């Protein structure tokens, strides 16, 4: 399906499959947030995207999107602890069968020749104007950053585990290979709009959020699973409704999401290799927490930019609810506990979070003194936290992988 001039101009934004939940907390390291740079191709201007060039930078370099709790982040972890958890020398009984089988699968590299661009991309970018152009650029930037964030984390895990567990190390490196491919593909699509992210600059200057290894595993496993579900849902919808195919990028989602599906299965196998992460009260609470963090982050992000879904012929709320229901069912096959997203109060609570987030954004955009802004925001922040706590202590479902002794059976 080609993107044509009949493209319906609206907006675009999606959650990345490749990152831990932005809302899940964690400690920032490596200094303050630096401007994200996007270099314009020679001779091209970025004015038509509506982005303001940074005054201290050359033309074609845009100001960073403001970093908030919902923006894609870069992650780091305690690599010594990872080594401790997965070293074959220290853990001679570490179950490696599933991971060894996955290595053979990942080495096949099914999508090696999938991400091949054609001239249609450039033509599609030229045809997209107005508000859609700006939103599409924002979507590409966010998605590229998130894919690249996954690449950096997995690459480093692969590098650090090389001596301790070569199979796991190679698997992480192969997942990093996929994420680098995804990020590169998105960055080239961004290039059609006269912009390209300076990924080297981002690597050095973006702040890194620290998570302990087990939290990285919970969060990435759920993030990969939700990424798969988002992509396949969009792809199937656009197959049924090709008039809403905004950009040729969406045609690549079917194979792309298979990568994400393999990544989710891989991370589930890593969790299963350390069964203590999948049983017991602590594991159940963390599983519930990370599921909710990922779902809430996506729900708020998407409702913040509903134009994307309108442009794709989708209803944001319906789309997100479908994705969360399906992801929760998938997560229930591995994690020991998931939130009961079918409980009567669940969606009303999520919708209240959307309302509070809209209020917070409205106040953020207000030109008044910072102190006053903070005071105006306080009640909405308080309500947001209270709502998140209510969701966390709300109904949950005991579930889990049948491979793990003592795990709850799948009853979703
Ligand atoms: Fe992924
Ligand atoms: Fe990816």
Description:
- It is a single chain.
- With 412 residues, the protein is mostly helical.
- It has a domain at 22-286.
- The chain has helices at residues 79-86, 97-107, 119-127, 130-160, 166-191, 199-205, 213-240, 253-273, 281-304, 307-311, 316-331, 346-364, 370-393, and strands at 27-29, 74-76, 208-210, 337-339, 396-398.
- Helix 7 (213-240) packs across helix 9 (281-304).
- Bound molecules: fe (ii) ion (2 copies).
- One fe (ii) ion binds at residues 17-18, 150, 179, 224, 260, 263.
Index terms:
two-stranded antiparallel sheet, single chain, 3-stranded mixed sheet, mainly alpha, 412 residues, 5 strands, 13 helices, binds fe (ii) ion
Q: What kind of oligomer do you see?
A: single chain
Biggest sheet record: 3 strands, mixed
How many individual β-strands?
Answer: 5
What number is the mean pLDDT? 85
- Range of strand content: under 5%
Structural class: mainly alpha
Uncertain runs: 1-64
Shape: globular
What topology, given as strand order, has the largest sheet?
1-3-2
Helix count?
13
Element-level helix/strand string: EEHHHHHHEHHHHHEHHE
| Structural Rg | 21 Å
Task: Name the bound molecules.
Answer: fe (ii) ion
Percent helix: 55-70%
| Alpha-carbon distance between the two ends | 37 Å
Overview in brief:
This protein has 412 residues and is mostly helical. Helix content is 56%, strand content 4%. The protein is built from 13 helices and five strands.
List the helices and strands and how they pair.
Blueprint: E1 27-29, E2 74-76, H1 79-86, H2 97-107, H3 119-127, H4 130-160, H5 166-191, H6 199-205, E3 208-210, H7 213-240, H8 253-273, H9 281-304, H10 307-311, H11 316-331, E4 337-339, H12 346-364, H13 370-393, E5 396-398
Parallel strand pairs: 2-3
Antiparallel strand pairs: 1-3, 4-5
Bound molecules: fe (ii) ion (2 copies).
